[in-house]
Amino acid sequence: TIVMRARKIQRFMAQPFHVAEHFTGRKGVYVHIEDTVRGFKMICDGELDDVPEQAFYMAGTIDEVLERAKK
Q1: How many domains does the chain have?
Q2: Are 66 and 31 within 8 A, CB to CB?
Q3: How do residues 30-70 score in pLDDT, each as one tens digit?
Q4: pLDDT bracket for residue 25 (50, 70, 90)
Q5: Which of 62, 5, 18 is closest to 36 using CA atoms?
Q6: pTM for the full model?
Q7: In terms of CB atoms within 10 Å, which end of the chain has fewer, N or C?
Q8: What is the CATH number of the domain that holds 34?
């Protein structure tokens, strides 16, 4: 469980930054620190254990992760 959450955190921290647009081909987004901390806490607390790891990669906010998980 610890490793699974750590992998999700690693993917979640790969947010689409403006400076990386050229390399990733994805439009950068601005995410408020409060939103990032909220998502990080939800992952650590196990609230998102049922969400697939792939949904976290290059997501701006945890709400985007949850939206991807619905698909």
Answers
A1: 1
A2: no
A3: 999 999 999 999 999 999 999 999 999 999 999 999 999 99
A4: confident
A5: 62
A6: 0.85
A7: C
A8: 1.10.1140.10
What pLDDT shows up at residue 2?
96
Indicate the SS3 state at residue 3: helix
Q: Whats the size of the chain, residue-wise?
A: 71
Question: In this structure, are residues 60 and 15 in contact, taking their beta carbons and an 8 Å threshold?
Answer: yes
DSSP collapsed to 3 states, 4-69: HHHHHHHHHCCCCCHHHHHHHCCCCCCCCHHHHHHHHHHHHCCCCCCCCHHHHCCCCCHHHHHHHH
What is the model's pLDDT at position 55?
A: 97
44: amino acid identity, one letter: C
